Amino acid sequence: MKKLAKKTTAKATASKTAKKPAKVASKTTAKKVASTNKMLNIKINGVDYKAPAGSTILEACRYANIEIPTLCFLKDLNEIAACRVCMVEVKNARSLVAACVYPINEGIEIFTNSKRVVESRKKTIELILSNHRMDCLSCVRSGNCELLALARANGVDDTKYQGSKTPSKIDDSSAHLIRDNSKCVLCRRCIAACSKLQSVGVIGTNNRGFKTIVGSQFDIPLGDTSCVHCGQCINVCPVGALYEKSDADKVLDAIRDPEKFVVVQTAPAVRATIAEEFGAPIGTNGEGKMVAALRRIGFDKVFDTDFAADLTIMEEGTELIERLNSKKAVLPMITSCSPGWIKFIENYYPDLLPHVSTCKSPQQMFGATLKTYYATKNKIDPKKIVSVSVMPCTAKKFEIHRDDQSAAGKGIPDLDYTMTTRELARMIKKLGIDWNTLPEEEFDSPMGTDTGAAVIFGTSGGVMEAALRTAAEILAGKKMKSLDYKEVRGMKGIKEASYTVKKGLTVKVAVASGTANARVLLDAIREGKADYHFIEIMCCPGGCINGGGQPQVPAHIRNTVDFRQKRAMVLYNQDKSMKLRKSHENPDIQKLYKEWFGKPGSEKAHHALHTSYVKRNWT
After folding, report:
1. Calpha distance 487→18 (Å, rounded)
2. What is the pLDDT of residues 156-168, one digit of tens each?
3. What per-residue confidence (pLDDT) applies to 410?
4. 366 and which of 14, 276, 308, 598 could share a cystine (Cβ 3.0–4.6 Å)?
5. Residue 157, burial from CB neighbour count under 10 angstroms (0-12, 13-18, 19+)
6. How far is CA 187 from the centre of its chain?
7. Is 438 helix (H, G, I), strand (E, B) or coil?
8. pLDDT at residue number 618
9. 23 falls within a domain
10. Distance CA 485, CA 369 (A)
11. pLDDT at 160
């Protein structure tokens, strides 16, 4: 968008009208020294170092490139010293101390590998294992278990402590998740993610002592709570206590049925992460190999959800322009492509539902178009089409069963099955497909054609930027010189900016990722203090590149590497290299409207591509 007289705040704040969420920090963690570069002299394992004042022992050791193992610790999220794996020795201290919360001071002497520390660490891990159901070979986290990695690194071959264990009580009541408390290590990382990252807080610790378990209030099934299905609890779980419900076997059964025409679509964020499941570094684009793998699995067609992302922009952009041109329209308009976010507003802010765009998500728009337009053009009975998606999102498993998601007629859902990135990776391995030797292949056409605007849907700010690229040109009546709206990019929880589209029209926008940040903007709207025209909200912090179905990142990487930004750069780099970077310039989208929908926002488009919401009244 042309940036004339642009007022850009982009401060990752909700403006002066709303308070930021309080910074998550342990009560016992030393306060950071503000506005100073003061360094303290410390000694670690007999060697002199310097470390920033205000650091914990864990931070100081990492500053000195000395790694202390942890299990419960997640930086700025779960600093509670619950697991006691990070215990170290401090000279003159009466006992071992937890490195994740113990503050350093001038001259402190720390021992991270003394006999006392090593024996304590080993015993702690043995005690944790004594209450852990160790069916490692069949566990969903086999090969990617933080507890097993700790055991191996600390010489724990088998636990010598035998006795009662937490029974295996399975909660599979939710659409997206299975919980098995016999695998739980009570690290409480899932609780922190649910309450602090997402401000949902439907899980916590129940009972006391040895009987302590993680569960919902009064131990009611998770499916009966106001859970939004985001899967962030799965993402931070170090073991196999939490994992997604898998549709993989049902998908394979459909592929093997000669009467079925099985089509798969993949979301933009999946290409940015799937290679991680096969040993590639974070930030590797796996699009070509992913397409090749899907063909070898046996799908009849392999399409790109990006096609429907472009379609979403056409419908959503039209809706935004109509609202901007109407004096009676409800503003700000809020995006609708994140199903976890939709469940959140239905649960907690049902009075604000008129602000939400009526557009289906790209996944659902794709399914609707597949079973109407594509089925008609190719003379295929939509009842014989099995529509499958591969998504970074566990909330999609809930979304496919929502009402008003059957464009082809009653009993014909837009989507039949959805798999996460992790599920696809496991399927590829199960079928013996060698990822590393796969060629680079392209999506099928026509529903595999996309633009750069669609690609960046997978990261926070991407939907906003894609919408601006199209809406700005339509509102201004001319092409814009710049297509990069960098003010809405990045991993900050809340971003805002203002853009002058043409004389007399300045569009004010905001972007939030993570529902805790969404609360800030929604509260501002309720109070009449949100002076925005358009808001993007993504349920997961950072957007789909950090979705609940993405490859799980071990804590030691989460705590030290900005993995979300690395993944996002895959999408921004792809966008930058593409010839088509605006949704309305996608030739197959233009053809779709010409041959089927007529124009964006038409009655036919509304029937197939728009939806409705439910006031769940969990407030």
Report:
1. 19
2. 977 788 888 888 8
3. 94
4. 308
5. exposed
6. 21
7. coil
8. 63
9. no
10. 30
11. 80
Q: Label each residue of 410-426 as H, E or C.
A: CCCCCCCEEEEHHHHHH
Q: Which residue do the tokens 């009466």 mark?
A: 94
What's the pTM value of the predicted model, to 2 decimals?
0.92
Structural tokens at position 189? 């990382």
Is the same domain home to 338 and 471? Answer: yes
Structure tokens at 604: 């036919």
The answer to whether residues 41 and 50 touch, using CB atoms and an 8 Å cutoff, is yes
Q: Identify whether residues 169 and 116 lie together within a single domain.
A: no
Helices (H) and strands (E) in the chain, counts: 21, 19
Asked if 293 and 397 sit in the same domain, the reply is yes
Residue bearing tokens 């079973």: 371
How far is Cα 441 from Cα 186, in angstroms, rounded to an integer?
A: 44
* pLDDT for 36: 53
Q: Which long-range contacts (CB under 8 A, 24 or more apart) does 430-438 make?
A: 430/248, 431/296, 431/297, 433/293, 433/296, 433/297, 435/275, 435/278, 435/289, 435/293, 436/278, 438/288, 438/289, 438/292, 438/293, 438/296
Are residues 187 and 280 located together in one domain of the fold?
no
Could you tell me the CATH number of the domain that includes residue 231?
3.30.70.20
Q: Is residue 14 part of a domain?
A: no
In a domain, 30, yes or no: no
CA dist 5 and 106 (Å) reads 51
Token couple for 429: 């391995």
The reply to whether 175 and 301 lie within a common domain is no
DSSP conformation letters of 262-295: EEEEE-HHHHTTGGGGGTPPTT---HHHHHHHHH
Same domain, 259 and 238: no
Specify whether the CB–CB gap between 406 and 384 falls below 8 A: no
Of 112, 15, 20, nearest in space to 57 by CA: 112
Burial class (CB in 10 A: 0-12, 13-18, 19+), 479: exposed
**DSSP β-ladder status, 109-111 and 170-171:** unpaired
Question: End of a domain among 127, 160, 189?
Answer: 127
3-class DSSP state of 256: helix
- φ, ψ for residue 24 (rounded to 5)? -75, 125
Paired tokens of 81: 């010293």
CA 161 to chain CA centroid, Å, is: 38
Residue 566 burial class via C-beta count within 10 angstroms: exposed 0-12, middle 13-18, buried 19 and up:
middle
**Beta strand pairing status for 534-538 and 333-334?**
parallel
Q: Do the beta carbons of residue 554 and residue 146 sit within 8 Å?
A: yes
Judged by DSSP in three states, 320 sits in helix
> Taking the CB of residue 46, how many other CB atoms lie within 10 A of it?
8
Question: Taking the CB of residue 206, how many other CB atoms lie within 10 A of it?
Answer: 15
Distance from C-alpha of 225 to C-alpha of 123, rounded to nearest angstrom: 37
Q: What is the pLDDT of residue 583?
A: 97
How far is 436 from 553, CA to CA, in rounded Å? 21
Tokens of residue 338, six digits: 């994140």
Pair (160, 180) in one structural domain? yes
Q: Identify the domain boundary among 244, 264, 290.
A: 244
Give the C-alpha distances (Å, rounded to integers) separating 498 from 2, 203, 454, 470, 485. 11, 38, 22, 16, 11
Q: Is 76 helix (H, G, I), strand (E, B) or coil?
A: coil
73 and 158 inside one domain? no
Buried b (16+ CB within 10 A) or exposed e, 301-312: bbbbbbbbbbbb
| Backbone phi, psi, residue 447, to 5° | -85, 30
Residue 331, both tokens: 């503003």
Under-70 pLDDT residues of the chain = 1-36, 618-619
